[in-house]
Specification:
single chain; four-stranded antiparallel sheet; binds zinc ion; elongated; alpha/beta; hydrolase; metal-binding; signal
Length: 442
């Protein structure tokens, strides 16, 4: 892409965000502000060999010491140490281990970038020098990559701090994997004064060097359930003298699937999965009870309230058909569906085109995965994107949450630069007139 094309793209980005009355008066200022050199500066600074080595070392140190939901104490310490070395002020704790670092003028517009920090309860099976040193824990969702990229953005933005006509808040958030760390961080004031937020997630189905995103539905609302089916145990040879919770559970599992096939509009996306069933010990005893767990997910705007109600009704009523009783519990934190804001998505698309070239900004379908970033977008405009981490050698590519997950580390500088550009260009656009909410009040 030549410089002129890049400048025009950048201009397009800002014009998209501006009310039309502001467009002509800001044109000349925008053209003068060469975004071609802006992108080049960011990319060349972050690609310095020393910086690339630092990004990798941060990722690898975190990868070797994975920590689960709300236990990210060493990770949090590592981040604070690096922020201190970069001379960046921060506040903590938010939601036990979270950190909010601040770069810029201290005035509005204020934009946030988010990285999650937690790992998964999983044994790593990647043969890798920096493999997890803690059995049963692994960074299998790439949150170690997210932290490294956000620290990289911190470095870039700090170097450009005098140019920032607003403030960037870097939110290092705990407990994305089921703990709802985003909600807790927000309750602790992590988003105070923030008017927009961006987040990225590594994604192994997108090639390294590309990103993907979409406007509107991006991730599903997701909740979990657990049920204990109580029956009456006895000898397997006399089932008529028992109330068999094994058969009741089997029928519950089948009936739950009919919530999707018979009660859901075929054009809507919903999922119910039963993922764990435990009951009985031997072949000749019908057990007293069976415990089952599962998840329900939907892209519907009601965040799964109807589905949740029906899951409970089906489990309880189907259990009673077999003379059993069911006690149903739902997980304490259900994630709302994540909807990317239209304008924030356009911003991602334009910044992505500037940094990577238009051909590397891909569309994506919504995912039925959950993402607690949705708590932020429920409050302020925001959007997420997938950043590609696929290797050219397809045999190395495994999905998120796989014990073989092995993202391409070469993406770290790009992720850092993209984060920084999303924030700086948002501020630039907002400063020029789109969002004056904070600038006019300070
Ligand atoms: Zn995950
Ligand atoms: Zn994740």
């Amino acid at each position: 892409m030549d410089n002129r094309a890049i400048t025009l793209l950048g201009l397009h980005a800002l014009l998209l965000l501006l009310p039309s009355s502001h467009a002509s008066e800001t044109c000349s200022a925008l053209v003068d502000n060469s975004e071609a050199s802006f992108a080049k500066e960011l990319l060349s600074s972050i690609h310095e060999p020393e910086t690339v080595a630092w990004l990798k070392s941060v990722r690898r140190r975190i990868h070797e010491h994975p920590e689960l939901c709300f236990e990210e104490f060493e990770t949090s310490q590592l981040i604070r140490d690096e922020l201190q070395k970069l001379g960046i002020p921060y506040k903590w704790p938010f939601a036990t281990t979270g950190i909010v670092a601040t770069i810029g003028s201290g005035k509005g517009p204020v934009v946030a970038l988010r990285a999650d920090m937690d790992a998964l309860p999983l044994d790593e099976l990647v043969d890798f020098e920096y493999k997890s040193k803690h059995p049963g824990k692994m960074h299998a969702c790439g949150h170690d990559m997210h932290v490294s990229m956000l620290l990289g953005a911190a470095k870039l933005l700090k170097e450009r701090e005098e140019k920032l006509q607003g403030t960037v808040k870097l939110l290092f958030q705990p407990a994305e994997e089921g703990g709802g760390g985003a909600l807790r961080a927000m309750e602790d004031g992590a988003l105070e004064d923030v008017e927009a937020i961006f987040g990225l997630h590594v994604y192994p189905l997108v090639p390294t060097g590309s990103i993907s995103s979409r406007s509107g539905a991006f991730c599903a609302a997701a909740g979990s359930f657990k049920a204990v089916i109580k029956g009456k145990g006895g000898h397997a040879a006399v089932p008529h003298l028992t109330a068999d919770p094994v058969v009741a559970t089997s029928m519950i599992i089948v009936s739950l699937q009919q919530l999707i096939s018979r009660e859901t509009d075929p054009l809507e996306s919903q999922v119910v999965s039963v993922t764990s069933v435990h009951g009985g010990k031997v072949f000749n005893i019908i057990p007293q009870d069976v415990t089952m767990q599962g998840t329900y997910r939907t892209l519907a705007q009601d965040n799964g309230e109807k589905l949740k109600r029906r899951v409970k009704e089906v489990i309880e009523n189907q259990a009673s058909v077999l003379g059993c009783k069911a006690a149903v519990e739902f997980g304490t934190v259900a994630y709302p569906a994540l909807y990317n804001d239209d304008k924030m998505y356009e911003h991602i698309k334009t910044v992505g085109s500037l940094m990577l070239g238009q051909d590397h900004v891909l569309d994506t379908d919504p995912s039925m995965g959950g993402e607690d970033f949705s708590f932020y977008t429920g409050k302020i405009p925001g959007a997420m994107l997938n950043i590609g981490v696929a290797h050219e050698d397809a045999s190395k590519n495994f999905m998120l949450h796989s014990p073989h997950f092995n993202p391409n580390e070469d993406v770290l500088p790009l992720g850092a630069a993209l984060n920084a550009a999303l924030a700086e260009m948002y501020i630039q656009s907002a400063y020029l007139g789109v969002s004056t909410k904070l600038s006019s009040t300070q």
